[in-house]
Predict the 3D structure of the following.
Amino acid sequence: MSDEFGPDTLGVRAGGLRSDFGEHSEALVLTASFVFSSAAQAARRFANEEPGNIYSRFTNPTVKMFQSRLAALEGAEACVATATGMAAVATTAMGLLSAGDHVVAARGVFGTVVPLLNQVLARFGVATTWVDATDLDAWRAAVRPETKLLFAETPSNPVCEIVDIAGLAGIAREAGAVLAIDNCMCSPALQRPMALGADLVVHSATKYIDGQGRVLGGAIAGRRDLVEGPLFNFVRTAGPAISPFNAWICLKGLETLRLRVEAQSARALGLARFLEEHPKVERVLYPGLASHPQHALAMRQQSAGGPVLSFVVRGGREAAWRVVDGTRLASITANFGDTKTTICHPASTTHGRLPPAEREAAGVVEGLLRVAAGLEDVADIRADLERGLAAA
Ligand SMILES: *Cc1c(COP(=O)(O)O)cnc(C)c1O
């Protein structure tokens, strides 16, 4: 279906399966296991001699529809869904790496990825080198003969740094390593890492794919040999599978993904321009602004700036907290990707456990605030930030 139709058509129709009931909306197949017509059929299914569903940890029609549709939108050969975004990152690492292997990862990745690699994977003999995401020479210098995985997120959360995906893909190819890109912040609506040379795209479906803050979910899309080989086998064997219910929410979320993310991104651009002019704002970090140091690169690999922006308020933590507490509409919450605008102070929440020096090095300064634009009237969101800033 992917070659024949455009992305809007794929978003609402790719991967759809219909049962004998003839339902129009995709069915939620909420069952743990599937029945067989005979003992012989059960044996054939288990022996992989006959296709069909067995048990929802590794075969479920609703999960399959979600996987096929996301693969189509990412321009990927295959996709495997997971319980959460972190389960997708863990599956990527545990599925691909063995003791003695080495990972190069961007310092600006999602916070929980750091202990996953430094503490959990390290116990299994996997070493990680952390590099400045924007410095291709640093990536190149960090590669060793045993490097098997390059991992980056772009734009990064919360400071909106951009990684040159095609540049990294070249480094990964030379090293014989796999390049995995976390595409949470843009989603396939605005950025398709596979087309730029990535081997795998990792998602927290909890964010824009659900898009309404309801469920947790994750997925890895990419090369068939990796996804249907070691990654699917890890999910089947270790069990970080998505529930059919959550997969159904995410599947239906994909139908409106592009409309939502494009509208949210347009709102974020408007807010970024407003904030850039505000006297209490020291600087705005948003890839869609010409003032962003990597604006040109961002506009080459993304179709818009994205729905998330960060800005630094003059006056440090005290002023930043006053902005948060001065808003009335924005939800004070660490999640993003919702239809409701969210605001958070990363230094005291999502990045609060990092030592202050490390935090500052990552750009998460005391005055930094992250806003994820929702779908409210842009004038209302802007008035809310204005109200917050008036309190700073
Ligand atoms: C939220 C997030 C994750 C983790 O996803 P969960 O669904 O919360 O486990 C990974 N990467 C990025 C960029 C995220 O924003």
Observations:
- Residues 84-86, 110, 153, 157, 182, 184, 204, 206-207, 216, 218 surround pyridoxal-5'-phosphate (CB under 6 Å).
- The chain has a mean pLDDT of 96.
